[in-house]
Each structure stands twice: as C-alpha cells, then as structure tokens.
Amino acid sequence: MFEIKDCGDYEEAKKLIIEYSEIKGAESCFVSLDKELADLETYYKDGALLIGFENENPIATIAIKRIDKETCEAKRLYIKPDYRGKGYARVLVNEMLDRSRKLGFKEVTFTTKPEVMGVGYGLYKRMGFVEVNCTDGVASMRMTL
Q1: Considering the domain boundaries, does residue 139 fall inside one?
Q2: 10: CATH
Q3: What is the span of the domain harbouring residue 13?
Q4: Which stretch of 15-29, 65-79, 130-144 has the lowest confidence by average pLDDT?
Q5: Is residue 85 part of a domain?
Q6: Nearest alpha-carbon partner for 145 in 97, 77, 112
Q7: Residues 98-127 pLDDT 10s
Q8: Per 3-state DSSP, what percentage of the chain is helix, strand, and coil (rounded to 5)?
Q9: Do β-strands 71-79 and 107-112 pair in parallel, antiparallel, or remain unpaired?
Q10: Is residue 144 part of a domain?
Q11: Strand partners, 107
Q12: Who contacts 144 (Cβ-Cβ below 8 Å, separation ≥6)?
C-alpha cells in the first residue's frame, strides 16, 4: 500500500533527498542543497514536504516551496529505484497539485533535466505541465492550477 504523509521525520527526509542528489547528472538540480538540508522545516515553510510510504517504509519525496503569494515550486520528486514503475510518481504529483491548490497557489513551476530524468519529464508533460524554456539542459516547466 502506498501512502503520502506530511514529513514527520526530517532526518528520514534528508536521507531521501541526499540519495536523490547522488543521481549521476542531477548535480545542477541541487545548487542550494546545504541551505535546504540545514533546516528543511523553514525551507518549506508556507509549502509542504511530503513523504511517500510503501507499507510504512519511507520510499519517496515531493516538496512544495513557496515562491510568492500565487506561485510555488515543486521540488524533490524522488522515488527509490526499487519502487519505481508502480505509478507512485503520478500519485505524488497529483497530491502535490492538490496540496498546492489548498495552500492557495495559482501556479506551480519546477525545473528538471530531461536528459537525466526523462521518465519524469515525460510524465510532467502528460500531466499538463508546459515547458517554458530550456537552458543548459535544464527545462523550466509550469502549470496553472
């Protein structure tokens, strides 16, 4: 069973985010990682840090970072490799979108590296995100809520 909960254990969230940051080619997605990990609770204040659990095991993350009153950034969509291919990414993205609406945001943005995260990039496009630009292999995408 897959379940998504608000982060209750920041150390567990740190482990998942660090594991994600070690994906070859994803390094440029983590420019503010030290600041983020130093205080996850403050970093995602006015947003959310969500953890996905399969049978009570923490296996996935997704986060919402407030940019301004109407815009948030989706961050840290990660699923441990052994748990991929089960449809969890779509469930996580849908939960992030629902939560963003409940928090009052009108638009969700994020960046991804299609060369490194091709499966995720394809999912985002299928779910209605629009690519607004791509610079140095980093695609900026957005969705109006």
Answers
A1: no
A2: 3.40.630.30
A3: 2-105
A4: 15-29
A5: yes
A6: 97
A7: 999 999 999 999 999 898 888 889 999 999
A8: 35, 35, 30
A9: parallel
A10: no
A11: 71, 144
A12: 106, 107
